[in-house]
Design a protein that fits this description.
With about 90 residues, the chain is α+β, with helices and mostly antiparallel strands. The protein has one domain. The chain contains three helices and three strands, in the order E-H-E-E-H-H. A three-stranded antiparallel beta sheet has the order 1-3-2.
């Protein structure tokens, strides 16, 4: 995956130094944005979502609040993609 999508191993370079297990636990507890699944063993996060999460954490928001903000970003991205498809 390149550019827009970040695989789990690419999260470290995006400022997320967490193990797979920690990411899974934080997602379960709504403290980290949910991934998008592309196949049985392929999951990724949209780079803008991770960026939003990082910025919110740096600004002092709680993990749950940062996750909510990041997932709102994901919903906005999905809405934009849907609008693009309906206009085409």
């Amino acid at each position: 995956m390149s550019g827009f999508w970040l695989k789990e191993r690419e999260l470290k370079s995006a400022g997320i130094p967490l193990s797979s297990t920690t990411i899974w636990r934080k997602q379960r507890d709504h403290k980290f944005p949910r991934h998008t699944k592309f196949g049985p063993q392929i999951k990724a996060w949209a780079a803008p979502v991770i960026s939003t999460y990082n910025k919110a954490m740096a600004a002092g928001y709680s993990e749950k609040e940062a996750t909510r903000m990041a997932e709102e970003c994901a919903a906005t991205l999905l809405d934009q993609k849907t609008e693009e498809k309906t206009e085409a």
